Amino acid sequence: MRIERELMRGAGPVAVLKLLEDGAKYGYELVTALAEHAEGVLDMGQSTLYPMLYNLEAQGYIKASWEEGDTGRQRKYYSLTADGKRRLSDGIEQWRALANAFIDLGILPSTTTRGKRSSRPNLGGASS
Amino acid sequence: MSESRDPDQRSWSEWWRLMNSTPWHDAIRGRLTGALAARRSFRQWLQDEFQQSQKQVDAIVAESGLPEPIQAAVLRIVSVARVGKKKRREYAEELVRGFAGTTSIALPLPTLERLGDARVCLAHSLPAPVSQLIDDVVRRTRLWRRERIDVARELIAHFEDGVQADRASEELVATFGEPRAVARLIRRAKLRQRPWAWRASRRMLQATGVFMAFVVVCWIWLLIRFVTAEPTVKRDFVGEWDQRTQAVAENDRAWPFYRTAFMKFHKAKLPDNSPQTQMDWGVLAKSLEAGAGSEHWSFWREHLESNQQALALTLQGTEKRQLGFVYRDVSNQEWLESQGPKGFDPQGFSRHQECARGLLVGVLLPHIQEMRELQLLLAVEAEEARSKHDRARWLRAWSANLSLAEQLPSDCAVIQLTGFFYASQSWSWLRNVLAKDPTLLTDDDLRQVAHRIAAFQGGGRLRLRVDREFGEDLLQRFYTDDGDGDGRLTQDYFRMLGDAERRLFGKTDPSRDPRRLDTILEWSAHSGVIASRAEMQQALQQYFDLEASESAKPLWEQALDEPSPGQRLLHEWYRSKWQRLRLQPFLGIMQPLISMEETPNPQRSWQAAEFATLNRDATLVAIALTVYHHRHGEWPERLEQLCPDLLPQVPLDRFDGQPLRYRVVDGKPLVYSVARNRLDDQGQVTDDKRNGPEAREGDWRLWPSM
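Predict the joint structure of the above. Result:
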């Protein structure tokens, strides 16, 4: 299922920041992770990811550095900054509030959501 | 010397010198074939150079021992490099060093920066479609060189990861997205990373661009608005003027006599101006003032004799009740044509005929100016009569002169001022006669003259009705009319300015040529800030209201040496750059008043009305004193003694509102005003040459004058 662009514009950065919470990652790694997680719902495409990364970098939420990977090739790794961690925390809070509101409205069935989240990698704070 | 060298040993500079110098040498020596041979040699040399260079590069790459794909990449990079053979070798060596010791196809950043982003893509062993995609995206970003390389490296790394993950190049390209959209997003994001100073200057440039675009759009709008604007002359002021005049019975009109007099008039010509005589109009004017018997009086006598017909017609005309000048009377045509090119022809005032036709100013000036000639004739006639002690002839000329003043319309300040001048001349002549030739007139004559003077309606107050109409008439010719009293400026204003300039100075500023595009552009921009018709009308109203209220005040309530309220307003507008620009049409017309700082014209105009009144009152006092002297053989001690038999009351000094000053000095009477300083100096005049209302110190001797 594809998420509408406007919705993705809000969710995408939080998802990327969340993926970087565990450690620095390079572009292709992020694309793969986003495509694999959440049944591909957050698969935003490569053409969207890199501009988003540059934007996050411009905003100071992430920083980039060229490093040599396992294969000996150089890759650009992105990692969270302190500001990025705060931004992620705020984003999680907001998405959690939104999810609770949706649950209250009956848009999201709470049990189903929790059940699905429990079997997949943790991308946000809604399930915590 | 260089021609004898081995071509293979020549450097670029040598070849360049040879190529440029050969034709000249050949032309001198007549050896054209030599030049052609040299050019053929040069082409051959270039081919040899390239082949030799390529062999060297091939050798460097082959000896490097790099993997085959990397060798191919190096050769591709060097082949697209548009540099000389030395640089090609250096590139090849640098690339080989960069790739040495590793199977990675990533080059060190400094090397990449030197190569440029397009060649960064070629330096990797990615499939051609992917390389082209990266190249396309990176090129479209239009970022700085370093930024492009950074993006290119990251995309290369990304696709290499994809290739490593066994994904087909076609799939990678298909899932990446449309290059143009990706490049746009990347560019937008990368620009946000640039330094704030750059972003600020970019914003400034963008704002400037937007502003300039806005200005251009506004200008175009103004241009269209300006070029399409046409004035609508709705009100026929001249027709209204004529209608008022036509209410006067034809038998009561003096103008037909004056017009005939003009046609028969011989203008005074200046005698030969030899250095010995130093004759000029100034000398002649003084002679006229000094009267009969003065040095050049013969000139005036001859002038009078040559214009007896005109004088007779003038005297007949002055017996009529009103001037009766009908502007659109076909009978005026011959007279207008007789004035020649110097005459004021309102039909020919502007090239833009429709605009100038029936301009009210055309009514005001031409005949008034001409009538001054007739008034001068009456002045000579009166003085000639006095010198011959011809009482009846003098009285006739004096009365005619006063009639001339009375006949002039009294609802226009410009014309009124002329009337004041004529009337003041009459008072002056009479006072001179009373002082110098008291026996010329009998007591009965004096009584009749006094009644005539007292009945004179001029003086006291200027009326601005026609002057307001003059402004309104100009507005309707300069502005469009939206039907609600508002409108915008048209080209006719600028045309009229140019025409007036040409008429006054004989030439027109080329920048006022309405056929020039830059002139039209300038005018259209200017028209955007000039006040609208309603605003201009309001400004005119404000000015005339102020001046009208000031003119209604007696002289003793006016500030004498300060600008009038209306003039202060003009100065205020003129000092403000914005108002000066907005009200330019109005301020341009009023420019003479604005520039007269010391002796403000309107102020003098209002005062001229009061001076005329003061002159008239002083003349009545002089008549009363003369009659008193005839009766009692002595002068009264106080003016109150003249009342009520000879004067209803003692007239007021217009300068301070007190009764006119009077003294008997050495057995002779002296009537005077305190004048501008408003102090009684006992009739003392500080400057004999300035005995008049202009004198800033001392008094003004009214009778007898100096």
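Residues 32-64 of chain B form the longest helix (33 residues).
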